[in-house]
């Protein structure tokens, strides 16, 4: 009996082998291009269909969405293409930058903020399977500083209106000291990227010694005392001397007075016989009274152009008591000056 059972089983196995060998089955296909299939069976019989779909994050583009197992044990081909989903192009962020290579599924954006700004939100975002970015774009907000420290005996002036107790990166403040204090250090401070202010200057008392007098001049204040920073003293000159330089001197932050002026002397026109031009008028030298030209004033004498037989005026300027007579001038003799005045260069036709 046992021999008969073994023989039956052997015959049955041969039968199955014979039947299955008549029909080729299809093995589970290996699909590429982000395509996935339904079902989990390892083998399919001829005529069976297998539904195709795109993996998460991909969109079908073209081609049938199923394949069929043929009698040859080969799956029919498909032209189905699955392309990655597209996320919207990211917008630029204020006071920052973004970096990315693509905007398709699983692409990433990285955000950075400019110096002096800090980020609120995520520094990166990934394109999701549903075609949206995983997180919204961050904001870059200015790094805040507290109010600028105020030096003793000084004040702060901001370059814009301040509300509250904080200011933003890049804001500048100008320092001013109350007289008689002078400012030592940079007068302008700035809120930095570290959230602190640049160095605060100091206000220190500054004095100057009594101002010096000037020759032939006088001062508006002759007190023999120390003068404070920014105090001023005026100078003047005795007539007919002329003040050259600033009328007023000021006590500077270095403890010294600004440059004081000087009094410059007038000039005399050292001619015996001539007619001169002064302030637009022709004047005989004996009528030029007083014989005086103030410092920096101009007077002209007349010279002869021998070739053209005409006269011309040559100006000369008084410089602190010195008036140089032009070399072309020739003083006439007493006879010419007295008896023939109409022949002088000042009286004939002018060139």
TrEMBL record:
Pfam families: Sushi (PF00084), Sushi_2 (PF09014). One of its GO terms (molecular function) is heparin binding. Binds to various kinds of negatively charged substances such as heparin, phospholipids, and dextran sulfate. May prevent activation of the intrinsic blood coagulation cascade by binding to phospholipids on the surface of damaged cells. The lineage of its organism: Eukaryota, Metazoa, Chordata, Craniata, Vertebrata. Residues 1-21 form the signal peptide. Keywords: Disulfide bond, Glycoprotein, Heparin-binding, Repeat, Secreted, Signal, Sushi. PANTHER family: COMPLEMENT COMPONENT-RELATED SUSHI DOMAIN-CONTAINING, MEMBRANE COFACTOR PROTEIN. Residues 24-84, 85-142, 143-205, 206-265 form the Sushi domain. Gene3D superfamilies: Complement Module, domain 1. InterPro entries: Compl-Cell_Adhes-Reg, Sushi/SCR/CCP_sf, Sushi_2, Sushi_SCR_CCP_dom. CDD domains: CCP. This is Beta-2-glycoprotein 1. GO terms for cellular component: extracellular region. It comes from the Eukaryota. It is found in: Secreted. Disulfide bonds join 26-69, 113-140, 208-251.
